[in-house]
């Protein structure tokens, strides 16, 4: 048997295979031993019928074809392994009819993942940004807590900005009724956008039980094109004016805001400061990862099969559809509102899909070069992490592979940052362990989406990518 492999510039591999007649004979013998156990022939126990009788029943060519199919599958799988070829999807087979007694030649063509050509990423140098929190930022967080604890007290005076008013509101544009609200609360603001732009300045100065009519212009960028830029006529009756009351910043507020976790304002400030600092450190780390990865992508050379980008775009659309479902909206409804077809939306996703594919290829290449691996204990840790949160993952091979792939990339980008920016001098051993756990949990989240939401698609793709099939007219025969 002779197998030659040619990797084409368009990210396809062609397997050129020559099989001798002796090898065809051996393959047909194996096929006969398999088929004879599946066929009932009168007068013989299953598996004991002679080959000549089975050939008369099924046809001699059928047995040779079955043998060739099995042989082709074996050659294909072994070649993928030996040549380190990663198929993207189902291969195509160029196989002539079998001529008895003659050597056989056929070709298999398969789209493949072509490894990226990395640049010298050790020459990339990035600076770590310092993470600092100011007292003003802590004050802003405290003010946010106060705003969430605000109370409203009815007042007998004219409405002003930052007050809350309750009113009946009827809005028309020409002959079209736009809105008809009863007992509707509005918090008056100088920054209102959307349909009711320009309303607040007209309501300021009104008192309870007062009525007013006025005209505004609906913004030209309003979503409804029939209303955008048109005049809107308002009829308003103010029912109630309420004034905002903020709690005092004291120890009592600290206890209420923290549900008793902190007994004084100083401890609450320290907690908020520490939390802001940790969030900023996380942001700095994430931005550094992004910059490092973008720098490596920029200096690398790629040869990407279009199908890989198409599949990534499809996966991104798939994930987006699940986000829409959480908002009780279908993908079809979203596309209808966006006035886009599915194909148009996929076209818009392609640049991001290509960026994502490049990043994945770069991380896989760096992981291989830096000898970054995932141990069985780490996979168990990822499964345990999810179980501890009350969201256990299915401990299947597909899920384990997805976890390993995602976590390996997480570890790789962390290693890349150490190479281009040096170790983080501010990270203690405990913080490093926490970061590792965060990375693991992030990897588990991605892997869960991959393994649970796209399991059917990926398993079908993998099956088709590792199997070949010869002419369907021989494969579809029913043997009884």
- Main beta sheet: 5 strands, antiparallel
Distance from first to last alpha carbon: 33 Å
Q: What shape does the CA trace take?
A: elongated
SS-derived structural category: alpha+beta
The number of helical runs is 15
SSE succession:
EEHHHEEHEEEHEEHHHHHHHHHH
The radius of gyration is 34 Å
Approximate helicity band: 40-55%
Poorly predicted regions: 446-480
What is the quaternary state of this protein?
Answer: single chain
What portion of the residues fall into strands of 2 or more residues?
Answer: 15-25%
Mean pLDDT: 86
Give the number of DSSP strands: 9
Number of domains: 3
Region (Disordered): 447-480
Function: Involved in protein export. Acts as a chaperone by maintaining the newly synthesized protein in an open conformation. Functions as a peptidyl-prolyl cis-trans isomerase.
Organism: Ktedonospora formicarum
Keywords: Cell cycle, Cell division, Chaperone, Coiled coil, Cytoplasm, Isomerase, Rotamase
Provide an overview of this structure.
It is a single chain. The protein is an alpha+beta fold and 480 residues long. It folds into 3 domains: 2-112, Alpha-Beta Plaits (2-Layer Sandwich), CATH 3.30.70; 151-245, Chitinase A, domain 3; 265-465, no CATH class. The protein is 50% helix and 15% strand. The protein has 15 helices and 9 strands. The protein has helices spanning 21-35, 51-58, 60-82, 135-148, 200-203, 251-257, 265-298, 306-326, 331-338, 342-369, 376-388, 397-421, 429-453, 455-465, 472-475; strands at residues 2-8, 12-19, 92-94, 104-111, 151-154, 164-173, 176-187, 211-217, 231-245. Strands 5, 6, 7, 8 and 9 form a 5-stranded antiparallel sheet that branches. Helix 4 packs across helix 7 and helix 7 (265-298) crosses helix 10 (342-369). It is found in: Cytoplasm. This is Trigger factor. Keywords: Cell cycle, Cell division, Chaperone, Coiled coil, Cytoplasm, Isomerase, Rotamase. It is an enzyme of class 5 (isomerase).
